[in-house]
Amino acid sequence: MSDVQANKHNFSAKVIGHFPGGVHPPERKQPASSQPIRKLKLPQELILPVRQHIGPSGKVLVKVGERVDKGQRLTEAGLSQGLPLHAPTSGTIAAIEERPTAHASGLPEQAIVIHPDGEDRWGNKHALPDYHDVEISRLLELIQEAGIAGLGGAGFPTAQKLAQQKPLKHLIINGVECEPYIAADDRLMQEHADDIIAGIRILQYITRCDSVLLAIEDNKPEAIKAMAEAIDDNPQIQLKVVPTKYPSGGEKQLIELLTGHQVPSGKLPMDIGLLMQNVGTAYAVKRAIIHGEPLLERVVTLTGESLKQRGNVWALLGTPIQHLLDESGFTPEKKQRIIMGGPMMGFTLPITEVPVIKTTNCVLAPTEKELPSPGPELACIRCGACADACPATLQPQQLQWLAKAKDYESLEKHNLFDCIECGACAYVCPSEIPLVHYYRKAKAEVRNIAREKAKAEQARKRFEARQERLEREKEERLERHRKAAEERKKMQQEMQQEAQQKNSDEPGSKAEEGTEKPAGKSAAVAAAIARAKAKKAAQAAKESPEESNSAKGNES
Amino acid sequence: MSFRIASSPHGHNQRSTSEMMRWVCYALVPGVLLHSYFFGSGIWFQILLAVVTAIAAEMACTVARERPAFSALRDNTAIVTAVLLAISIPSLAPWWIIVIGTLFAIVVVKHVYGGMGQNLFNPAMAGYVLLLVSFPVQMTNWLPVSAISEHSLNLWQTLHTILFEYTPAGYSVEQLRSGIDGVTMATPLDSIKTGLTQGYTLTEIYQRPEFSYFAGAGWQWINLGFFVGGLLLIQQRIISWHIPLGFLGGLCIPAFIAHIFAPDLMPGPIVHALSGATMLGAFFIATDPVSAATSNRGRVIFGLLIGFIIFVIRSWGGYPDAVAFAVLLANMCVPLIDRYTRPVVYGHGD
């Protein structure tokens, strides 16, 4: 390190922040970091899942049997977050069918299969060597059209991330690559430092940010040297060498490490004036803008002791993993594991007929001796080693109890969703409890419950709306009945009055008062009949709403 | 070809629970060696009896609970419980004392509560308290250290005494405890307690043969032995420093303050730290992770609480020593401590 520090370059080894927890697994980056990135021979076929990033997939633009050029667009950009897909080399569309994907489940998805013709013939490229007089919105369009997604982790469409504009304090370029074994970014920095810097300049131009923090872990002296030379005396780019500790390359951890600030839960780095991009992404942006080349290939680390020839390769997107293994002297042992990604966060592939996608940074084929399988799970002894290792200051032991008890409400209170699934807790657990596995299951369950709840809520709203409607109708009906009854009553009273007028010569026979005084017999009888009739009519009018009421009760 | 599925992370740092428990046993060695030097070979028989009983009880319980019997044994926790209890009791206590205590610790305190990892109370200390309140005579029959004792027993005599409660020559433990003058000798903490109630000052009490150098003869060295073992555990990262520091702080700071105000009535921090089960408690018993608080802040509070309760009981309570009671009382507070010492999660601060 000291030779690098003695360098004249703009260089700051001092890191302001610190993040809690973290672990130091054996790094094992050596075979991959010390050899140049190899070019592979073309595979028999390329498998391009139509949907290989966050966001919906676009319409397929090609037909089976069609010849395509390298870089030719295969799908439309699709809506909002969708990215288009391009032919990684020239060839023929052999099929558009369901193929197993590079996912822990291996479930099949719609994919375009290309048989390369070996010519590697480029189609039209729209190079833009000087982008400074181009509008930012156009540059974002170009990045979107080049199909660039974050090459570091989640594969979020880069243009989308760049377009969320708020004033930036720092643009952070992540070259930390903290996961053991992986040396794809390391090697890319060693071999393409100038291109990465050019890419960073484009990102700076787009985000109008004049402070770049380029972070590299101190176990990559060659990459640090290369990048320091490429930065030269550019005052806007600061090289930050961070101490080796897993997971310092995690977005949230690196932000805390470089700035001392935390991204508030549920917010984005953008909300505190930060934006992070991977070095590989910066490289891809440079290729896209300056050379007009869409994202067609990436560096993949092939490593693990079941491979004879370990190192990095330039792999075309869609290259079957089996092809990569064949090209590296793969000799599987009994119960071989094939891990896509690193040992801490990677997932095992059940089959190797799945393709390289934009986020595939490593294929690891370890021997059992090298990365022993966990022993049987023992009971938690609450030793708290997991809590000491957790970079998010969660309490993994409590989460584990709650997850096993299926207490989803408490899990959310204990901030299960702030878990980044880095695996540090399970790595140190003396009882070998597969903690991350429990959290993933619990998270899926909580999401399910939320979905169910949303559904139930909708059903409740529907039900309440119906109840309200019925209530309203009932009220209206009652109102109608009441009016009808009043009408009838009025009529009855008029009739009565008429009758009374007839008998008006009879003194003191007011029906309303109900008082009776001895009078002429015939007149008294007539008055009595009239009273009885009036009473009956009044009663009928009173009862009718009750009847309709009960009838409605049955109906509902 | 299809490949094996596994969940990340793949790989593990190789320190298992059983290995950690083994380290606890290794770290006990200096203290136990000193113990057997000062109190004779009885402790080895007690440990043997306790371990055999614990393994048998553990297996019986796991079989009864329909769980794999041998995998439960593999974690070594039952053995640690047994050894801690065996160290805590008088080394010439009759065999059934340690058997009953161990059975209670494993069967009731551990398995009835749900087995490994589920017990609210420290099994060894719960077993100890059961014995202390049920068999106070046998549980307080500590021999004076061999340097000042009239009698010293060989291996066979020790075993005979543990099995039949009398030496082959027919002495009871009570008789073995008597000095030349026929007065029964007590443990240093006992002497302080009874001496103070009889109106002696500490200066006078310290003149008795049970005391030498810093604290009680023999006891101080045993405590130092456990202290060294405890440092080894911290160095090996088997335990963190939080509980022992809290424990010793909670005990020694109040002791120091009290000693300044009443030097002839309140023993100083060094006497407290090197007497009774202080060091064993601070580094080996209170640090049992299952029944302790889990966050680092919580652990300090948990330790402070134990230390302070020990100070209170030793100073004003009815028992000369109080590690077991203090640990159990603090165990009860653990859910509360855990609740209020939860660390702030990333992104939830200001």
Automatic annotation (TrEMBL), chain A:
It is found in: Cell inner membrane. It is a peripheral membrane protein. Residues 493-502, 520-542 have a biased composition (Low complexity). Its cofactor is [4Fe-4S] cluster. It comes from the Bacteria. Residues 370-399, 410-439 form the 4Fe-4S ferredoxin-type domain. Gene3D superfamilies: 3.30.70.20, NADH-ubiquinone oxidoreductase 51kDa subunit. GO terms for cellular component: plasma membrane. GO terms for biological process: electron transport chain. One of its GO terms (molecular function) is metal ion binding. [4Fe-4S] cluster 1 binds at C380, C383, C386, C429. Its EC number is 7.-.-.-. Residues 466-492, 503-519 have a biased composition (Basic and acidic residues). The keyword Cell membrane applies. Residues 1-10, 547-556 have a biased composition (Polar residues). Pfam families: Complex1_51K (PF01512), Fer4_7 (PF12838), RnfC_N (PF13375), SLBB (PF10531). PROSITE patterns: 4FE4S_FER_1 (PS00198), 4FE4S_FER_2 (PS51379). InterPro entries: 4Fe4S_Fe-S-bd (IPR017896), 4Fe4S_Fe_S_CS (IPR017900), Ion_transpt_RnfC/RsxC (IPR010208), Nuo51_FMN-bd (IPR011538), Nuo51_FMN-bd_sf (IPR037225), RnfC_N (IPR026902), Soluble_ligand-bd (IPR019554). Keywords: 4Fe-4S, Cell inner membrane, Cell membrane, Electron transport, Iron, Iron-sulfur, Membrane, Metal-binding, Repeat, Translocase, Transport. Binds 2 [4Fe-4S] clusters per subunit. Part of a membrane-bound complex that couples electron transfer with translocation of ions across the membrane. The complex is composed of six subunits: RnfA, RnfB, RnfC, RnfD, RnfE and RnfG. Belongs to the 4Fe4S bacterial-type ferredoxin family. RnfC subfamily. This is Ion-translocating oxidoreductase complex subunit C. It comes from Idiomarina rhizosphaerae.
From TrEMBL, chain B:
It is a multi-pass membrane protein. Signal peptide: none annotated. Its EC number is 7.-.-.-. GO terms for cellular component: plasma membrane. One of its GO terms (biological process) is transmembrane transport. It is found in: Cell inner membrane. Its main location: membrane. The complex is composed of six subunits: RnfA, RnfB, RnfC, RnfD, RnfE and RnfG. InterPro entries: NqrB/RnfD (IPR004338), RnfD_bac (IPR011303). Keywords: Cell inner membrane, Cell membrane, Electron transport, Flavoprotein, FMN, Membrane, Phosphoprotein, Translocase, Transmembrane, Transmembrane helix, Transport. The lineage of its organism: Bacteria, Pseudomonadati, Pseudomonadota, Gammaproteobacteria, Alteromonadales. The keyword Transmembrane helix applies. The modification FMN phosphoryl threonine is found at T187. Part of a membrane-bound complex that couples electron transfer with translocation of ions across the membrane. Its cofactor is FMN. The gene is rsxD. This is Ion-translocating oxidoreductase complex subunit D. The chain crosses the membrane at residues 20-37, 95-113, 120-137, 211-234, 241-262, 268-286, 298-316. Pfam families: NQR2_RnfD_RnfE.
